[in-house]
Amino acid sequence: MSRLIRMDQTGHTTLAEWTAEDSDATDAAVAAFRAELDQGYYAVVSDADGTASHVRELPVDASLVILRRPIAGG
Amino acid sequence: MTDALAGRRARVAAADGLPELATVWWRPRTDENSIRRTERRWLAWTVTQTAPFLAVGALLVALKPLLLPMSLLAVAQAWIIAELYAARGAAVVRPRRLSGLAAGARKTAERTALGLLGDLLDHRGRALHDSTGLVLERGALGAWVLGEAGAILVPPGGRRAHCYCVKPTDADLPHADRVAHLLLALRADETGFATLANLAFCGARWRVRRRLERSAREALDAAVEASALRYA
Question: Is residue B171 very low, low, confident or very high in pLDDT (cuts 50, 70, 90)?
Fold first, then answer.
């Protein structure tokens, strides 16, 4: 089961869960993903090797996609 | 197209660095050479600011030994200038004010955020965060200590510390989420992260260490150890 989560004031919120076989759930996840990007969130996939990648389309094969707010120099 | 292929393509499409870099388009991307240049520039700047006071101190004593107290004041001034810069650097990993949420909600949010941050760390990283509130991350530029509103980079060798101010734009995020924001950005694009962040201090690591809280010193020491192990 893959998850799309958003880091927010509550710690994090799970926005969608899907499996590659469930096209309805995947479509819903893609829609939720795009809606959050439109709100100004950035999407990151944390890889097993300790790196991370920014994505602009939902990688349906990823187990966890994290939405974060922008960062800026203080 | 398979789902796996679609996923890879989506990642490749976004492989051009931190999106936030567009907000600092005029800055050249940080690399190992620019890190070294920054160290030399900060050293020159510090010498420029402190050397006149040291010279005055020496001159006063040379002219008249009775002026020793005045000479010591001048030397103290030189010392204080360097300390003030180091204090500014150490402040980047100091915990920030709590958000406006009610205490119960804040506690719940913090616990939830900690779960996610813990998933991003290995066992040693979780233990370090539990004891210091900071996260250690090894990168190509050196070892990083991440707080909720800044980061300290210890380049190979471990003698210097680069203190950066950088934070999520949402001020109401729980502490662990704020750290996770910086960690994910750093892992995605280390040089972009260093480019985006504002440099608050660059100088002797021992000088920054003295100004840190005791728990933060533990994290900085771990970074020095990581830096030495990785780049020895």
Answer: confident
Identify residues of A whose CB sits under 8 angstroms from chain B CBs: 5, 7-12, 20, 42, 44-46, 50-62, 64, 66, 68-74
What gap in Å lies between CA B49 and CA B191, rounded to an integer? 29
**Contact assessment for residue B110 and residue B176, using Cβ atoms and an 8 Å cutoff:** yes
Cα distance between residue A1 and residue B122, in whole Å: 22
ipTM of the complex: 0.94
The tokens of B162 are what? 């680069």
B-chain CB neighbours of A59 within 8 Å are 6-8, 10-11
pLDDT in tens, A17-73: 999 889 999 999 999 999 999 999 999 998 888 889 999 999 999 999 999 999 999
Residue type, A57: E
Domain ranges of chain B: 30-232
At residue B98 the predicted structure's pLDDT band, cuts being 50, 70 and 90, is low
